[in-house]
Amino acid sequence: MNEMTREQMPLVEALLKYEQAKHVSMHVPGHKNGAAYERAAAETNDAAHASLYRRYAALLGQDVTEVEGTDDLHEPTGAIREAQQLAAQCFGAEETYFLVSGSTSGNIAAILSCCTKPGDIVIVQRNVHKSVLHGLMLAGARAIFVSPCADKDSGLLTAPSKETIAAAVQRYPEAKAVVLCNPNYYGLGVDLTPIADSVHAHGLPLIVDEAHGAHYGLHPKLPKSALQAGADLVVQSTHKMLLGMTMSAMLHVQGARICRKRLAKALTMIQSSSPSYPLMASLDMSRHYVQTRGPAAFTEGLAAVEYLRSWIGRSNTFSCISPKESVRSVDKDNDQSSTHPLVDPFKVVIYERYGNCTGYDLLDRLRENGIVAEMADLNYVVLLCTLGTTLAEVERVAAALVHLEDQLKIKREVETRSHKDSRHKDRESASIRKLSLQATQMEDLIAEPIAFSIFDLDQRQVRFIDTSEAAGYDAAEAVVPYPPGIPLLYAGETISAAHIKLLQQLSEAGAKCQDASDKTLRTLLVYEK
């Protein structure tokens, strides 16, 4: 495609043409291009409600359906097809599919496209998003979980090492695919190139959940993308790090290892037959912006985030994971310790360095000062910056942190005076960032096959048990801290002492967990022994 084509936004232009035609709508949706909202505004005596109706009416002129000129997502031949082709060119794929149900739908469809019969084996990174597990369930697949590498200093998990993946593929040559998540929610990742080469050497496709890396490969200061590393199928949440509306995402494919006919069929099954055109248009516009501006699209955002990192670097209270820090492999079988200094500069992962403030506490304190962060865990708060972040915004973040510094300094002084022994010092040096769960997750680099199904195949009796007494029992439900949506416990997994310790910490911190019946995490549903 030439430069003139690159400047176009085929789907956006098609929707504008539809909107300007002022047709009489005798088709869905029922709001009739926003006209029903305009009528509601005229009929109400409440000025605030009238303003709200009109505000939404302005958004709905392009909320259309599959009519002449707007194309069909599930069988595109016109504007959507052209928009997807431009996206493929922009991100380096052979073929790109627009997603209107987020990366969740892409991850599920990816697994369904590779599994052809119940019981198929898929090699899966253990710390994946729950949508990957849902894909395994729908496929009736068996998962071979492989343990990821861990950062020695932060305790955060990234992707498995090349050696671990190679060993898993050799042990299970009948596997249908390898599924990884890179980068993680905190912006830490690895260079996937050697892993892709190893997987391909065994004839398998590499599927990558790159939900947090839609911007990768688009600027010299950003890590290369999974597609550039050689992955066969890549799912990206365009709405997370680029300009897409919430729920909009893309699925990219290259090479011959993915059956595209099965993939297209799976996407038709997973996604709505009435997809949102505004969502798809935002994908078209997002692609247009980064493709026409090139690396310059990220200049202002990178300058802003570098300012924030510089300020935090001078702080006496807060610190952050630096792009210069490395992630070390702890592959015990191969006794290797490779470094992967891949940190997304746009993810500013901060923590209070003296242990006086958990990540959840810091999240709440920031919110009280007008700063709404992306997520928190026991130790960290993730400040998510993008190409849309401005210097004025990060200056507000710095001002809020200055205010919190004063508060926490007073707290430290009080605690220091109240501790006559070395306990306070020990608390600082121990660093709450060391999570005992990491050791549990690294015990078995390559697990035995675990069967997934949407049907309840385990007929054992279940009961609730006090969490403190659950060690040795098999969990009858999953526990998924959200965000980031990565399971802490899988249903059927044996509960360890390390699990219990972290569950109790999460309970005390008031963490939000999905799937757990008892939201306080004081009890767990387990299988009877």
Task: Characterise the protein shown here.
The protein is α+β, with helices and mostly antiparallel strands. It folds into three domains: 79-282, Aspartate Aminotransferase, domain 2 (3-Layer(aba) Sandwich), CATH 3.40.640; 298-430, Alpha-Beta Complex (Aspartate Aminotransferase, domain 1); 459-527, Molybdopterin biosynthesis moea protein, domain 2 (Alpha-Beta Complex), CATH 3.90.105. The protein is built from 19 helices and 18 strands. Strand 12 and strand 13 form a beta hairpin. The protein is globular, with a radius of gyration of 25 Å. The model is unreliable at 325-340 and 421-442 (pLDDT under 50).
CATH topology of the largest domain, what is it called? Answer: Aspartate Aminotransferase, domain 2
Biggest β-sheet description: 8 strands, mixed
The termini sit apart by 63 Å
Count of individual helical segments:
19
Computed structural class: alpha+beta
Overall mean confidence score, pLDDT: 89
Radius of gyration over C-alpha positions, nearest whole angstrom: 25 Å
CATH architecture of the largest domain: 3-Layer(aba) Sandwich
- Number of separate domains: 3
* Sequence stretches where pLDDT stays below 50 over 5 or more residues: 325-340, 421-442
Assign the CATH class of the largest domain.
Alpha Beta
